[in-house]
Amino acid sequence: MVTTLTYQNSIQEEIKSRLKSGNSCYHLGQNVLSSSSLSKNLKMICRTIILPVVMYGCEHRLRVFENRVLRRIFGPKRDGVTWEWRKLHNEELNNLYSSPNIVQVFKSRRMRWSGQVAFMGKRRVIYRVLVGKPEGKRPLGRPRLGWEGNINP
Q: Is the pTM of this model over 0.85?
């Protein structure tokens, strides 16, 4: 997959592109995800196919995407008082789905990758990109978080 960067180092177009790819991947398997003849555990395998497609993106939008897929897998719930069908709330999805959410998976993979890069030699390009300091002047205003700022809790 090709990564798109803009002049201002914004990755918004990249995020949109990855979510679009994830949505098309999801829609290809939509019939499987909504089938009542398959178990929920079997449907969760589809998540392992869709997850890598959208792994690099905005955490909030990733969480919204994951909740949309989980709502489709688990289906609606009948309200105990009014007996009307309704969508599952986020807390209910978290209780039904015991695995780590997409953001936690994203952060753990990022930490694992940073550990691998830290053990690389200083001659490796990826190591120099991770720990290097860019040259030139920064624009006015609050500096954007660097890669290291995103892995620190």
A: no
